[in-house]
């Protein structure tokens, strides 16, 4: 991932505005100032933030009970997951949702005249964050898909390759005898190949 070290350095400093500048967008803190203040508390050790935006997620079972209707959540893309934070309006409680990258199929964005939305495809369902700042949605989708591709490449290159098993001369002789018994080889062909195999012992 391009600028990975820079993202890591800015995350350590909790400089969310600079991360947005690195992505050529402005910090979208509409309705999420409280969530931005507590973001550092919800990151894992060494977790790196790539992008963040705010958007509407419909009221669900995990929403704060003191909230009504749709909630504005802080949506954060990190090197580990998608992290969503929602601070309660009347208390200091914070709801969090986390989607690990290994569960994500793809990320797409849609831009309207003023606002946009991000769709995170989980295979069995699609999570939508709506009414986001228009410029942030394409940045987040692009970075997410690029990172998912990189993680996939890393997994493939680190997975152990199954080495082709060397066939022993004895195995070869057994196969050769079976071929002669089936009538696939003449005695002359059998003896010629047999001599070559025996020479390998």
TrEMBL record:
Domain SHOCT residue range list: 171-197
Give residue ranges for domain YokE-like PH.
44-144
Q: Name one Pfam family in it.
A: SHOCT
User: Which InterPro entries did the record assign?
Assistant: SHOCT, YokE-like_PH
Question: Which superkingdom, per the lineage?
Answer: Bacteria
Put simply, this protein is called: Short C-terminal domain-containing protein
Originating species = Pseudomonas moorei
